[in-house]
Write a structure and sequence with these properties.
The protein has helices at about 1-10, 15-30, 65-75, 100-110, 125-135, 150-155, 160-180, 200-205, 245-250, 280-285, 285-300, 305-310, 320-330, 340-350, and strands spanning about 35-40, 85, 115-120, 140-145, 185-190, 215-220, 250-255, 260, 275. By secondary structure, the chain is α/β, with parallel strands linked by helices. β1 (about 35-40), α3 (about 65-75) and β2 (about 85) form a beta-alpha-beta unit. The protein binds S-adenosylmethionine and iron/sulfur cluster. The site of iron/sulfur cluster has 10 residues, from loops.
């Protein structure tokens, strides 16, 4: 069976595209001149206690990034041609930060192409929406994991369903009233035991409200372990795992200036440097970062316990799985319903 599938794969060019992808991936691993994405945590304070989020295990002090430090970070990274995105949130609720609008405006004035915020939207009143839109925010994702009050409030403990639903509707209204194309809005659903039966209702509720012409979308995420914060996914340390790619493209700066390898390190347990006294470029190229990249290139993950225990390392897939994903790539993925009625189109594509 394996031999047959591999011959078939060669015939339809899967192995060729796989090799090409692998070559690209290796080239990518070899070069890491500057990050493509910079995450700047404005605050790690939060007004919720969502069930899947390991906030109760967060040991770091709660705080807000100093505005002068933030501006200096933006000044530096706005000089980099390679920079594509700046995320203005971290392990907290970004709208709690009274300076969020000012941060967005500053980043846009400095020419940052893609400013992005992920929020629970509980504080997204129409006034806040208007301020963020006028400041030039490019993208916003709302974590909204229920279609009914019952499921929503079991998951997003401490938040109120009606408030968030009204805020999200108002966001669309305000953008329309201001006749702006920004921000692109993504409404995210994360299936888990309390809400998995509501996925259909969620899509039905929102798919006529999002505006595809402005780049909005509905998305579906998957539970992850948040390093060792949760145990949703098994980690097989014996498998031949490869890099998640993040140390080569992403710089994750916590509110106090510490630099962590990625957003999964919510406790900042692997601090690679600090940008209060050093420049971003200096930290990105320092010994600790280079060591981490070496570990990822050589796949010697046991040298870095955070990475060794993480469920985001890539596990090689069998040829059968690769074939299945090749066919899945040729049709719109069901998991991302950017196109209204994506599931039906997918079925039609499968039949044709
Ligand atoms: C830490 S939150 C910060 C932003 C904001 N407070 C929010 O909830 O949208 C970042 C994202 O991680 C998601 N998240 C939290 N725990 C998760 C888990 N165990 N698996 C997958 N996503 C998770 C949140 O729902 C949110 O979309
Ligand atoms: S997922 Fe976001 S809103 Fe929920 S507890 Fe975590 S940081 Fe707060």
């Amino acid at each position: 069976m394996r031999l047959y599938l591999s011959t078939l794969a060669k015939k339809i060019g899967v192995s060729c595209s796989y090799r090409l992808k692998k070559a690209r991936h290796n080239a990518f691993l070899a070069e890491a001149t500057l990050p493509r994405v910079v995450h700047i945590e404005n605050t790690n304070a939060c007004n919720a206690r969502c069930v899947m989020c390991p906030r109760e295990k967060m040991k770091r002090p709660v705080g807000y990034m100093d505005l002068a430090l933030f501006k200096r970070l933006i000044d530096e990274c706005s000089q980099w041609d390679s920079l594509e995105e700046v995320h203005l949130h971290g392990f907290g609720e970004p709208l709690i930060d009274p300076y969020l609008t000012e941060r967005v405006r500053y980043a846009k004035e400095k020419g940052i192409r893609d400013t992005y915020v992920v929020t629970n939207a509980s504080l997204l009143t129409s006034e806040v929406s208007e301020r963020l839109i006028c400041a030039g925010l490019d993208r916003i994702k709302v974590s909204f994991y229920g279609a009914t009050k019952e499921a929503y409030e079991v998951i997003h403990r401490g938040l109120t369903f009606e408030v968030v639903k009204d805020n999200v509707r108002d966001l669309f209204d305000v953008r329309r009233r201001l006749d702006r194309s920004n921000p692109r809005i993504c409404l995210q659903f994360l299936p888990q035991s309390a809400n998995s039966h509501e996925e259909g209702i969620f899509k039905d509720t929102w798919q006529d409200i999002i505006d595809l012409s402005r780049g909005d979308r509905l998305s579906q995420a998957q539970l992850h372990n948040y390093a060792t914060g949760r145990v949703y996914n098994p980690v097989n340390k014996k498998a031949r795992r490869t890099s998640c790619g993040l140390p080569f493209e992403t710089m994750h700066i916590l509110w106090n200036g510490d630099v962590a390898p990625c957003c999964y390190d919510y406790n900042g347990c692997l601090v690679l440097g600090n940008v209060v006294a050093a420049g971003l470029r200096e930290v990105w190229n320092n010994k600790a970062f280079q060591h981490l990249r070496k570990v990822h290139r050589n796949r010697t993950f046991s040298r870095v316990p955070l990475c060794d225990g993480c469920d985001q390392l890539k596990v090689p897939r069998s040829i059968e799985k690769r074939l299945l994903s090749y066919f899945a790539l040729t049709i719109p993925p069901e998991r991302d319903v950017a196109v209204a009625g994506g599931a039906e189109k997918r079925e039609a594509a499968l039949k044709s």
